[in-house]
Write a structure and sequence with these properties.
alpha/beta; Rossmann fold; 8-stranded mixed sheet
């Protein structure tokens, strides 16, 4: 690790039968447990300020997922959707005593939101509450066209490992810390993770760039392998890696029927460019804007209605007896806990108290 942890944050490595997991912790280990699950191309270090701001009586725990941060690297089996990550999280929580009688509150950010939803599908009885912060759609990223998650193409073309910007992937693998290209990790973070012109303090920006550059770039991890397709835009999901695990083949719609049903807080930035009904990283949007030639039109490949898909699943959750609250944070992008920390913490802590 190139930059020391913030004062008050501790690190541990937890050996489990599945994965050697690196995790950050803060607060009283005997307190109410809150588990933070990070997003794609990031790590637990994006939660340090949030963990330190938790009041007395809470124990904050933030693991790095496989292939991210300082955790062990193992191949992601995309045929299992997000179950590799969910199963890793399960064995980690078992190892630190957060299953059974001691249920944690779970917060999932972006990709982590999908991991938390999968974990709740698998282990609903062991979850005290769920916070979904700018979560990915339950139906993956890219390549679906309605609120039920119907794929635009039978082979899920337009999603998966082949949709990642190759120059961005190359710069990640080379450890690019520059600002010379819109595709540098630093510039991608500042353009998409946050709403411009917001930027974190320079010393924290370096920590976050470090975390991004720890992403394990390979066909087995990020972004994953790719396959060609006869359907626009010419790529379909492969068999391994993160982006294939969250392709249009993913279906977390079963979240709406979990039992028991812990309370859910859905909090998101109003100006999120990543998770949106018109995401600027979605091929439907890019094709419509003319950035990807050959777009077959809205009737075949519209922008994925990501926010509407999340709401549809949560509405079904509520119809089945569950409870959820949606909070939209104004003038905020993909990271409310960093961009609007006071607004986020007020809502999050009130939710935990009520849960």
């Amino acid at each position: 690790m190139s930059t020391p942890l913030m004062a008050g944050i501790s690190a541990r490595v937890v050996e489990t039968p599945r994965l050697r997991t690196y995790a950050l912790t803060a607060g009283d280990e005997s307190g109410t447990p809150v588990v933070f699950v990070h997003g794609n191309v990031s790590s637990a270090r994006f939660f340090e300020e949030t963990m330190l701001a938790m009041p007395p009586g809470y124990w904050s725990v933030a693991p790095d997922l496989r292939g991210f941060g300082e955790s062990e690297t193992k191949s992601v089996d995309a045929s299992r959707g997000l179950r590799d990550f969910s199963d890793d999280l399960r064995t980690f929580l078992e190892a630190v005593g957060l299953t059974g009688a001691r249920k944690p509150h779970l917060l999932g950010w972006s990709l982590g939101g999908g991991v938390v939803m999968q974990y709740a599908i698998d282990h609903a009885a062991d979850v005290a509450s769920i916070t979904l912060m700018d979560p990915m759609s339950p139906f993956g990223f890219g390549g679906t066209k309605d609120t039920h998650g119907a794929p635009c193409w039978p082979d899920a073309a337009g999603s998966g490992g082949g949709t990642a910007n190759p120059d961005y992937v190359k710069r990640l693998s080379e450890g690019d810390r520059s600002e010379e290209s819109p595709n540098s990790p630093r510039n991608v973070m500042n353009a998409f993770y946050f709403k411009p012109p917001f930027r974190v303090a320079p010393e924290r920006e370096e920590v976050f760039v470090d975390a991004m550059l720890q992403m394990k770039v390979s066909p087995e991890n990020y972004p994953g392998d790719m396959q060609t397709s006869e359907n626009w835009p010419g790529v379909r999901p492969g068999a391994t890696g993160v982006n294939n695990a969250i392709s249009a083949r993913l279906n977390l719609g079963g979240f709406s029927a979990i039992s028991p049903q812990p309370p859910v807080l859905w909090i998101r930035g109003a100006d999120d460019l990543i998770v949106s009904d018109n995401s600027m990283l979605d091929f439907g949007t890019l094709g419509k804007l003319g950035y990807v030639p050959g777009w077959p039109g809205d009737d075949v490949f519209p922008s994925q209605p990501m926010v509407s898909q999340i709401r549809a699943v949560l509405d079904r959750y509520a119809t089945g007896g569950g409870r959820y609250t949606e909070l939209v944070v104004a003038d905020c992008g993909h990271s409310p806990h960093i961009e609007k920390p006071a607004d986020f913490r007020t809502a999050f802590l009130a939710f935990l108290a009520g849960a």
